[in-house]
Amino acid sequence: MLFAAMALLWGVPYLFIKETVETFSPFAMVAGRTLAGALLLLPFALRRRALRPALARWPWVLAFGAVEMGGPFLLLGHAEQTLPSGTTGLLVATVPLVATVIAIMRGDRTVLKPLRVIGLVIGFGGVAVIVGGPGMVAGVDGLIAVGEVLLVAVCYATAPFIVAAKLSDVPSLGSITLALTAVGLFYLPFALLVPSEAPTLRSGLSLLGLAVLCTAIAFILFFALIDEVGPARAPLFTYVNPVIAIVLGVVLLGEHLSTGLLLGVPLVIVGCWLAATGGRFRAARADAEASAIA
């Protein structure tokens, strides 16, 4: 049930973002999502006394918040003013590919196994098919939006290295609550200054869904899932997220399911799985320890 819940809760944000930015500015979307999420998580963080350790490492918590939330949430909001939500969700799913490249750049040669290298080639080939294949992303604005989403993937792949190096002994709930608060307060002035249209019921409910379901509740369930199955198996639901994002975009938003997207979906998912796991269905002990933060 936890796996299914997380596959859904982190598969629907792209639908909610697409609906939210129809009337809210990307700044307002980020500020509303993070501040509301922080308020909902705050009682749990206080109960577990998780804030004091996070405050003691506040520079690194802020760095984590900027890379994991501040930059990505804004970039996704701006990109989805151009890109379909399903395409956005699939491009974000390239995080394991980027993480493998970063590991190689950091000198980790254990990832240079044949199947992982093949996974990198297949995965990035899938991205190329999505961007340049049949029904490709059109126009300069579309290519800029693709670049923004791929930059989000870089951010999401980089953030765990900050956690592993500087925040590994800080309670995750405290780090996330403090980071959400800082990001929300940073974007609040921009949200008030940049004009937004009068919110519709759908955009307002989508913003509420982002804050409550995809931020506060999702993080709580993610911690419960880690406690239940361990950090190595917990992130396996991420391979289902892009499929959910694409299906919701087509069914609820009427987004076009292009040939390039149909061809690219299996390439990206298989490439990510090979690059992240080397083709195994069970993580070895060494890999389980190395991927604890991821």
What does this structure look like?
By secondary structure, the protein is mostly helical. The chain has one domain (2-290). The protein contains 14 helices and no strands. Helix 1 runs antiparallel to helix 11 (201-229), helix 2 (13-20) crosses helix 6 (85-92) and helix 8 (114-132) packs antiparallel against helix 13 (259-277). The radius of gyration is 18 Å and the shape is globular. The chain starts with a helix and ends with a helix.
SSE blueprint:
Elements: H1 2-9, H2 13-20, H3 26-47, H4 51-56, H5 58-79, H6 85-92, H7 95-105, H8 114-132, H9 139-166, H10 172-193, H11 201-229, H12 241-253, H13 259-277, H14 285-290
Helix pairs in contact: 1-11, 2-6, 2-11, 3-5, 3-10, 3-11, 5-9, 5-10, 6-12, 7-9, 7-13, 8-13
What is this entry, summarized?
Helices cover 75% and strands 0% of the residues. The chain has 14 helices and no strands.
